[in-house]
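Propose amino acids for all 202 sites.
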C-alpha cells in the first residue's frame, strides 16, 4: 500500500506525538527507577543508623548497669569500713570485746606491718589492696571456740579478714580439778585487708 504525500502529511503529526509520548514514558520509567533506587539507599542508611543507635543504647544501658553494680559494691565496702586507712585501734577494740564476750582467757596477738598486695588500675587513679597480717595465739576448750572467734572477728568489720592458716595442737597443760582447762591451742595467720581508692576524696 502506497501512501500519498497528503496522507503522509496527515500522519506526520500523530507520529511525532506518538514518539514524544514514547520518550516521555521512557523518561518517566527512568525517573521512577532512580527514585526507587534512592529510596532503597535511604532505607538502607536509615536501617544502619537505627542499628548503630540500638547498639549505642545497649552499650549505655550496660555501662549504667555496671556503674550501678560498682556503686552498690562500693557502698557495701564503705559500710564494712574496708575502704581507707587501716583501723588498728578498732581491731584492738574488737578483739578485746570478743575476748570478753567469749570468755577467752588466753588470747595473744600481734599485727605486723602493712604491705601492698595489689595495685589495680582504675580511672582516674589506681585502687590499692593492703594487708596487715595478724598472728593470733589462742587457748581453746574445743574447736568450735576457734570458729566462733573467727566469725566474731569477721562480723566486727573494719577490714576484710582472710584466714591464711590455722593450726590446732593439743595443749600440754594438764587438767586440774579446780576449773575448766583449755585442751587446745590455735596458732593463726589472718590477713586484715583494706582498700585504698586513690581517686576517693579524703
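Proposal:
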Amino acid at each position: 500500500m502506497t501512501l500519498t504525500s497528503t496522507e503522509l502529511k496527515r500522519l506526520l503529526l500523530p507520529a511525532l506525538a506518538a514518539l514524544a509520548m514514547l520518550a516521555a514514558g521512557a523518561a518517566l520509567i527512568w525517573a521512577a527507577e532512580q527514585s526507587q533506587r534512592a529510596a532503597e539507599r535511604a532505607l538502607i542508611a536509615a536501617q544502619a543508623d537505627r542499628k548503630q543507635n540500638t547498639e549505642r543504647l545497649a552499650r549505655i544501658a550496660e555501662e549504667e548497669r555496671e556503674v550501678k553494680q560498682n556503686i552498690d559494691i562500693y557502698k557495701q565496702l564503705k559500710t564494712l569500713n574496708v575502704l581507707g586507712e587501716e583501723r588498728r585501734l578498732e581491731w584492738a577494740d574488737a578483739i578485746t570485746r570478743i575476748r570478753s564476750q567469749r570468755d577467752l582467757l588466753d588470747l595473744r596477738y600481734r599485727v605486723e606491718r602493712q604491705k601492698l598486695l595489689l595495685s589495680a588500675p582504675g580511672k582516674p587513679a589506681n585502687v590499692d589492696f593492703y594487708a596487715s597480717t595478724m598472728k593470733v595465739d589462742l587457748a581453746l576448750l574445743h574447736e568450735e571456740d576457734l570458729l566462733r572467734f573467727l566469725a566474731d572477728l569477721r562480723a566486727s568489720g573494719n577490714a576484710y579478714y582472710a584466714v591464711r592458716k590455722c593450726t590446732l595442737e593439743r595443749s600440754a597443760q594438764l587438767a586440774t580439778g579446780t576449773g575448766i582447762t583449755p585442751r587446745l591451742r590455735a596458732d593463726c595467720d589472718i590477713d586484715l585487708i583494706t582498700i585504698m581508692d586513690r581517686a576517693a576524696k579524703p
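Residues 162 and 191 are 5 Å apart (CA to CA). The chain is about 50% helix and 25% strand.
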